[in-house]
Amino acid sequence: MALKEGLRAWKRIFWRQILLALGLLGLFLYGLPKFRHLEALIPMGVCPSATMSLLTDNFTGALHPWARPEVLTCTPWGAPIIWDGTFDPDVAKQEATQQNLTIGLTVFAVGRYLEKYLERFLLTAEQHFMAGQRVVYYVFTERPGAVPRVALGPGRRLRVERVVRERRWQDVSMARMRTLHAALGGRLGREAHFVFCMDVDQHFSGTFGPEALAESVAQLHSWHYHWPRWLLPFERDAHSAAVMARGEGDFYYHAAVFGGSVAALRDLTAHCARGLAWDRARGLEARWHDESHLNKFFWLHKPAKVLSPEFCWSPDLGPRAEIRRPRLLWAPKEYRLLRD
After folding, report:
1. Record-annotated residues binding UDP-N-acetyl-alpha-D-galactosamine (predicted)?
2. Which residues, in sequence order, are CB contacts of 313 under 8 Å at separation 6+?
3. pLDDT in tens, 3-47
4. Could you report the per-residue pLDDT of 55-89, keeping only the tens digit for each?
5. How close are the terminal C-alpha atoms of the chain, in Å?
6. Which end of the chain offers a freer environment for a tag, N or C, measured as fewer CB atoms within 10 Å?
């Protein structure tokens, strides 16, 4: 009798804990933002010591993943995840200078996004993006005459490319892969050795240097980097070209920042443009548009380097001990005002 009562009490406690966990999960996913601080308690995993000893980089030389034991510093396929403290920025700058590189930075400033965000993006890029390196900015907009004039340092240029204004903001987001693919096959591809593609509604807040360069570069999404894989918002519509089955996917990557060599980005943008065209021909639209297709690409073609959330951080998440020096900060999202 006592044993049965004990079992019943244990079951009640067990199911209460399950319900509490589900309730808290629902709150931090869909409700009170403060509950999202709890996700910092979810362990990110540990880089095997055998892998850590082999981590090197073409721009930073030997990496120091053991300097950040509280975070995951490598991927399952052996690529580094770059966190503050794991690299020597002076070595990265020296290597980039020796290679005599030109680095491209593309950004789309369409509609009200131009007036709202572009000037601050460019001004802070001049302070922090690849300082001391040759840089060519490519601004894609339907209003070239409205692009602000920003004083540029030596060896830094600004190109403005006209694009057609799409009817819906979703179409603006999705059309950029097709536009980037064409630009990478044209003057941008001839001018730059490596290119980063970024969203305009953010600004630089710290050094974003050559330590970020690699053949292909993906950015961990700051809202999802602690989540278990089964919770990540991959595309699940089986009819979409971006679909990823349960159990597929490594990390969830943010389309606000991605980069690599011209050849690698040509492959990425071609893949995404084809997938978007496939979906459109069938009346489909992936949940997160071009970002869904980008995540599918990086599942099939693993990035050579992954940037930690320090490189693109959302202030809405508040301060976290593991985020030492944010490089990019999201701007407040004012979708009702900016998207018409």
Report:
1. 108-110, 113, 199-201
2. 222, 323, 326, 327, 328, 329, 330
3. 655 666 676 677 556 645 655 566 555 555 555 667 777 788 888
4. 878 788 889 999 999 999 999 999 999 999 999 99
5. 67
6. N
Annotation says 291 is catalytic: yes
The pLDDT value recorded for residue 172 is 64
Number of domains in the chain: 2
List 126, 291, 310, 334, catalytic entry: 291
291 is in an annotated binding site: yes
**221 annotated as ligand-binding:** yes
Same domain flag for 144 and 7: no
Indicate if 222 and 90 belong to the same structural domain.
yes
Asked if 241 and 125 sit in the same domain, the reply is yes
Q: Is 267 annotated as a binding residue?
A: no
In a shared domain, residues 197 and 235: yes
Where the chain has pLDDT below 50, the residues are 19
Token representation of residue 91? 């070595």
138 SS3 class: strand
Residues 87 and 28 in one domain: no
